[in-house]
Request: fold
Amino acid sequence: MTRTEQITTTPTPITTPVPAASDPLLQLAYETQPPSGPEAVRGVLHPAELALRGMPVTCSACRARRDWLLLNRRRNVWVRCRCGNEWLEPEITRQDFDALIADPTWTHHPSTEAGRVALGFDGTFVGVYLDS
Ligand SMILES: [Zn+2]
Reply:
């Protein structure tokens, strides 16, 4: 097993345009205003049990029954568990989410992935209830 080929690689020139969000002023405006556009992702923590039509929501992966992260984008609302399991929950409407978001603990992040990691819903705390 000997390699005789000379591998030559040409470095790929970096031509990635600077995204508009890197503008400090635009970024500041984004961070200081609640997301309201159709593409905005909103998240709200739901530490208590969540009942839909009288049925408590249970994680199909780890059997957790509370301590959810609810994510809203457009008309869709997802439920995310601490174990990293996430599913679209059609029983929760955007109106329901708007009612939940009246809670002052709601937060928002530039992306769903950033929100998951920031809030500890990237699977790090599987099987753990973090509320006090
Ligand atoms: Zn789970």
